[in-house]
């Protein structure tokens, strides 16, 4: 089996376990669902579960960590002449795609994170990782370290606000519209590196 095929098979299995876990969390609650129950529902042993996810929380956030890498790659792919704040807003389409295509699941995930203290703490860890990835992507565009950190941190905070408002308003509100409005609130008058 080639390395690429192994990686795809591992990702497919991680995705399957994460989706199984998520369904159980929605049905029973995060705290009420055990690793043993997730493993059993996924057709795995407890030991096999831990080969794919180090913790139960990672079944919620493990795949989202990869989304941060996609976001940073989307920023890096923006035209060099594009102002950094504009590049961040445009790249956020990567974050909005799951919300647009899997609305019910996205809302259930946001509710789960907001209602579970251990997941809120892990959310902060994820945000820190995403911030570092975005800061690096902005610095590669010749944005100073301080400005890159401020812009990346602010963009992620704006995304959190959008998620809260979208969850409160319901699925009839378009996340893209909320994102545009939220980014516009902080649009620099001079958007340069």
UniProtKB/TrEMBL annotation:
Kindly give the Gene3D superfamilies that the UniProt entry links to this protein: Tetracycline Repressor, domain 2
The GO terms describing molecular function are: DNA-binding transcription factor activity; transcription cis-regulatory region binding
- The source's superkingdom equals Bacteria
Note the DNA-binding span(s) on this chain.
34-53
* A Pfam family: TetR_C_14
Q: Give residue ranges for domain HTH tetR-type.
A: 11-71
Does the keyword section mention DNA-binding? yes
Q: Which UniProt keywords apply?
A: DNA-binding, Transcription, Transcription regulation
Q: Which InterPro entries match?
A: DNA-bd_HTH_TetR-type_CS, Homeodomain-like_sf, HTH-type_TetR-like_transc_reg, HTH_TetR, MftR_C, Tet_transcr_reg_TetR-rel_C_sf
Keyword DNA-binding listed: yes
Q: Indicate what this protein is called per its UniProt record.
A: AcrR family transcriptional regulator
